Amino acid sequence: MPRDVSALELALNERPRHMTRTRWLYQELLLAILERRLPPGSRLPSTRDLANEYDISRGTIVTAFEQLQAEGYLISRVGSGTRVNERLPDPVRTQRLQKRAKKLPGSLSDGGDPRSARPFRAYEPAVSEFPIRTWARVAGRRLRSASTRLLAGGDPRGYPPLREAIAAYLGLSRGVRCSPDQVVIVTGTQQGLDLVARVTIKSGDAVWMEDPGYFGATRAFRNAAARIIPVPTDDAGLSIVTARRLCNRAKAVYLTPAHQFPLGMTMTLERRLAILAWAREVGAFVIEDDYDSEFRFEGLPVPAMQGLDRGGSVIYLGSFNKVMFPSLRVGYLVLPPELVESFLSFRLSVDLHASGVDQAVLCDFIVEGHFGRHIRRMRQLYSHRLGTLLDAGRKYFNGLLDLLPIRAGLCTAGLLKNGMTSRTAEAAASAHDIETMALSRFALKRSDVHGLLLGFASFDESEIRRGVVKLAGALEREAPKSHA
Ligand SMILES: Cc1ncc(COP(=O)(O)O)c(C=O)c1O
After folding, report:
1. Whose CA is nearest to atom 3 of ligand 1?
2. Residues with Cβ < 8 Å from 324, sequence gap 6 or more?
3. How many other C-beta atoms lie within 10 A of the C-beta of residue 65?
4. Ligand 1 mean position to 297 CA, how many Å?
5. Contact, 388 vs 193, CB < 8 A?
6. I need a labelling partner for 402 at 20 to 30 A (CA). Which of 3, 89, 299, 452 fits?
7. d(Cα 452, Cα 29) in Å, to the nearest integer?
């Protein structure tokens, strides 16, 4: 029989000084659940009892409970309080999976705690700012009026009105020149890259990759048995002179020209034109990942390479997963017309098409103007948050970390100035409850980039300021003696 557990019986360990109350409570409760001190089905103490016993606010307790509910450890029902889930995830299996995830090179879970976002998690937009009520209203209306056609199945290219809306949006905001027939809906950039790699690359084909660069793209091309050619980036983007010297006859190049991942620079027009001319000359594909260019804070938007291309060489990829919310899983490709048929016949053998209902809801959300409003609001918010990070960085990071000038995106890189390597700095930050990613995680061959990737989008001003102070403290304390 499930039993009630009192706040006293719980006996939580003391909170380490560097740890937030929410994080401490979350960890202690999770440990108690995993060790069966809080057995499956048992009722947790009330938030009031916990607040009195441990001298913490009820808001903090509710946040920790909500996190554990979201992860399936707790269940809350009106009238019966909060209980430990009867069907807990098997702890041995969970641990095994966590260990395995940690071993994957460049896995996002390498960089930090997969459960709760701490400053400066790099890959998370401000999900709490998403207008979920509007989304629910639009979704409810769409589902109530869903036609049997929408429910029965769909076009392997994607929902036609959504493709039209995307083609119009890209033409206006990114200078992309395409008809809706060239647009194919996928679950995100990652699926787009996987499909593109498998359709365009034969085993052993050479592919130029930015170094440092996005490991998700490297993996997709490795999975397709491509020969990866790491090409260093400089202030203007991927160095085409070096690339041509390393391997002129590559089959494709993968680029993040609007906002290089992870260093953040924008590729110059001159460099873009030189790469397009090379692609025409050797018959290569330019794979343009425009994953977060909606968030441009200053300067004129630089049009996509796709719009500059006159040779049908560019495959353009975009995503709604950062602009809206990551679990949405909707993205798109813009293909050169000659590639559409072979791409679609391959795609049919993979997953037919993306979810028709989600595409229809997203389409309504765009057409009714909510998407544009959301982007404008987030652009302002992120610009403000970036300003706070830079401002606090100027004050506290002096001699420790130089934040690179960026004009777009959700994260920025900082170069270490205190003699630390990326990995030691990442570990030092983590020991002080700060989540960063070592830039070396994105390096293919280079060993000269020592720095950290810092996300600013999902943290408010005070979290950013506190995070900067903590990170500066960690970098100062752990610096090699010669730099101290
Ligand atoms: C450069 C880059 N491209 C693509 C993606 C993945 O996009 P999606 O979530 O649409 O698969 C990410 C995710 O962080 C990224 O950093």
Report:
1. 291
2. 130, 330, 362, 371, 374
3. 20
4. 20
5. no
6. 299
7. 31
- pLDDT tens figures, 30-56: 877 876 778 888 888 888 888 888 888
Ligand 1 centroid to 2 CA: how many Å?
44
Q: Which residue, 273, 321, 269, 323, is CA-closest to 293?
A: 323
Instruction: Report how far ligand 1's centroid is from the alpha carbon of 461 (Å).
Output: 25
User: Whose alpha carbon is nearest atom 13 of ligand 1?
Assistant: 123
Q: Where are the alpha helices (DSSP H) in 201-339?
A: 215-223, 240-247, 269-282, 305-308
Query: Is the four-CA dihedral 457, 461, 466, 468 of positive or negative sign?
Result: positive
- pLDDT tens per residue, range 302-331: 789 999 999 999 999 999 999 999 999 999
Residue 226 tokens, joined: 């491509």
Percent of the chain exceeding pLDDT 90 equals 68
Predicted local distance difference test score (pLDDT) of residue 93: 45
Atom number of ligand 1 nearest to Cα 214: 1
pLDDT tens profile 82-123 = 888 887 655 444 454 344 434 433 444 334 445 467 999 998
Helix (H) / strand (E) element for 415: namely strand 411-416
Per-residue pLDDT tens over the stretch 430-461 = 999 999 999 999 999 999 999 999 999 999 99
Ligand 1 site-directed mutation target among 127, 184, 189, most atoms within 8 Å of CB: 189
Q: What is the predicted pLDDT for the residue at 484?
A: 53
Binning pLDDT at 50, 70 and 90, where does residue 71 land? low
In this prediction the pTM is: 0.77
Supply 261's token pair.
């991942």
Q: Do 74 and 83 contact (CB within 8 A), yes or no?
A: yes
Ligand 1 cavity residues, CB under 6 Å: 123, 188-190, 214, 216, 256, 261, 289, 291, 319, 321, 331
Q: How far is the CA of 116 from the centre of ligand 1 (A)?
A: 19
Residue 408 DSSP SS3:
strand
Q: 124 CA to middle of ligand 1, Å? A: 11
pLDDT in tens, 138-172: 999 999 999 999 999 889 999 999 999 999 999 99
Q: For residue 131, with 0-12 CB atoms within 10 Å meaning exposed, 13-18 middle and 19 or more buried, which class applies? A: middle
The best mutation among 184, 214, 255, 266 to test binding of ligand 1, ranked by most ligand atoms within 8 Å of the C-beta, falls on 214
Atom of ligand 1 nearest to the CA of 108: 14
Q: Which of 10-24, 194-208, 294-308 has the lowest mean pLDDT?
A: 10-24
Handedness of CA 235, 217, 189, 107 (dihedral sign): negative
Distance 215 CA to ligand 1 centre (A): 10
Pick the residue whose CA is nearest to atom 14 on ligand 1: 123
Look up residue 264 and give its amino acid: G
Residue 184 gets which letter from DSSP? Answer: E
| Three-state secondary-structure class, residue 443 | coil
